Write the structure tokens for this entry.
Amino acid sequence: MAVAVTGLAGRSCEACRKGAPPTTEAEIAEYGAQIPEWDIVDRGGIPALERVFPFGNFVAAMEFANRIAELAEEQGHHPALLTEWGRVTVTWWTHKIRDLHVNDFVMAAKTDRAYGEG
Amino acid sequence: MAVAVTGLAGRSCEACRKGAPPTTEAEIAEYGAQIPEWDIVDRGGIPALERVFPFGNFVAAMEFANRIAELAEEQGHHPALLTEWGRVTVTWWTHKIRDLHVNDFVMAAKTDRAYGEG
């Protein structure tokens, strides 16, 4: 069953086991349209969603990283968070399937909302 | 003047301006001996000190990242902190000189101490 086009950020992560289906190309196109600022990057042979969020200093960047860490705990799905002076790079992928899962698109949309978008 | 061999972690960062001298090979050998778990890595043509710290979950990793962020604010010298499930990769270099400065070795030693070493 496809996730409704609207409201990706409002969804919860599904339980995800080894063998769960990765997102199809059609799903990537559909969900990706809701998170247009994210790129699909290669992280050691695994596709991942990634976006750089700019901030005015290190403290503000770290505060945002902490908000995303809280979201991750709530949903039981964890990103890579690269915090530097003035920016946070957020990367989502699904460890168990070594691929992209709808959960990653849900978390990317939640990340945008935490940044004040969406 | 050379920094005393003992107590790198107890020192404060010096003010660092553009044109400040990077660490010499002799200094790298001397200070590096006090932080044996750190590697010198290449980050886009800039040498940097880097170490991966393991943790049992994401929350513990994030807590450590926050402790290092506080140290960074206190000293006015900021790292890159890559927080993932079960580990934090800490990278120190000196932005203003695009090289390693004694401050980076001081911060690496303080990072080790924050982890419960040194």
In short: The first helix of chain A runs from residue 25 to 32. The beta strands of chain A are 39-43, 46-54, 80-84, 87-92. Chain A has a mean pLDDT of 92.
